[in-house]
Amino acid sequence: MKVVRVLLLTIIVSHEYHWVDDTVFRVFFRLWGIPFPHTSPNYCGTLDAPSLSYPEWRRLLLPPVSTTTAMIFFARNLPFLPILNHRSSSFISPNCFRSLVFFFTSEARKRSPKLSFIAAYLISSIGLSPEKAIEASKQLRHIKTPSKPDAVLHFLTQIGLDDADIRNAVSRKPTLLCTKVEGTLKPKLRFLQQAGFTEPQIARLISKNPFFFHRKDVHLKIDFLGDLFSSKEDLLNAMIKDTFLLSSNLDKRIIPNVSYLRTCGLSNGQIGFLMKSGFRLITRRLESIKNAVQRALELGFPPESGMFSSALQSTCHMSRASIDAKIKAMRSFGLSETEISSAILKAPQLLFLSVKNINSKLDFFVKGAGSELSYIISHPLLLCYSFEKRLIPRNYVLRVLRSKGLPERKYGLFYIMKITDAKFTEKFILPHREELPDLYQVYLSACDGNVPAEDNFS
């Protein structure tokens, strides 16, 4: 192991760094799974092997040296580095050592590119992967010393961010490490605390949306948006799910959009609900919002109804052509315009289904489950349940019970598909565990996509 340590130190020295920060050493040795060694701070030509330990000092200053110089340096100091084997203490010969060093330094240079200081820092101090560190370092080329990143990391740790939070924040916004702690970070933190956010909430916001630190009017936006939410947690979720919320212009976009939605009959609570649900609403262009409102009105949703905001969730994120294609798919099964409108009014989320999904489920209920189309369209939420995880497995259990002539309680199809898995098991599987002891396991297997033929069931 000590031979390997010497070789690794040689490789590091042979790289032409005017100074090598201890983070570079940690990265290099961590990649090889070897404890981080250090030399004596007195750079006098000897290496005291017993003193190699975790750094007692911050940096090792080294002149730029070639591979040859590095080999000569370590070869001369070889007597101070005993190599122990399982039988006796011995020393490696200088010639053998030079050969090994030349081989390993050449191979290392062939296999991996030299890491920049900041990339090495991101790997060792934050735990980023080499790929992400190299990508993030492109925005941080101007950083030559660890003083400012160290200060930022210390600040983030103090306010409650753990390693994973910091990695997420830096991955999303690498220039966060360049931010002034006293001039930018602390004032923003004080505002969030005064606004009523808790430390865990602030940590989540920084981790998921670190861009807010660089927004000058963030306090004005948070003050304005606070009226749309009943709690700080809801406001936090909105700021996390819509990263454009704090970057959009307050006077030219956010305020006009909110004012327009209010004129359409939406309450503050309805607007806030749409925002915290992850729908980019008030950060869209006003013309886009007007088009979405118009499509919702055309579908028959009155602005004063509670379902109007739900309809906007659909119409905001799909074109008129997409909506028309889904209505056409339902019409192909013989449904009237009135029936289709009624179904969409009851379950606006129908519009999120693909044309293929709509066709498959309607076909399944009519042909596979033997249901009347009028019943399905009067209970449109049936079309919104998972095909593979709920509809097919439960219908399979019902068919098995019928095929075995077992008594079946009279429940409507909507109730059967709506209840929880636990309730379904209690009502339709456990009562028949004596006649069909394997039914529960087969049902679980069906939920995983393995549906056997009923006549093969025993």
UniProtKB/TrEMBL annotation:
Keywords: Signal, Transcription, Transcription regulation, Transcription termination, Transit peptide. The keyword Transit peptide applies. SMART domains: Mterf. GO terms for biological process: DNA-templated transcription termination. GO terms for molecular function: nucleic acid binding. The keyword Endoplasmic reticulum does not apply. InterPro entries: MTERF, MTERF_sf. Residues 1-16 form the signal peptide. Pfam families: mTERF. Belongs to the mTERF family. This is Uncharacterized protein. It comes from Platanthera zijinensis. The lineage of its organism: Eukaryota, Viridiplantae, Streptophyta, Embryophyta, Tracheophyta.
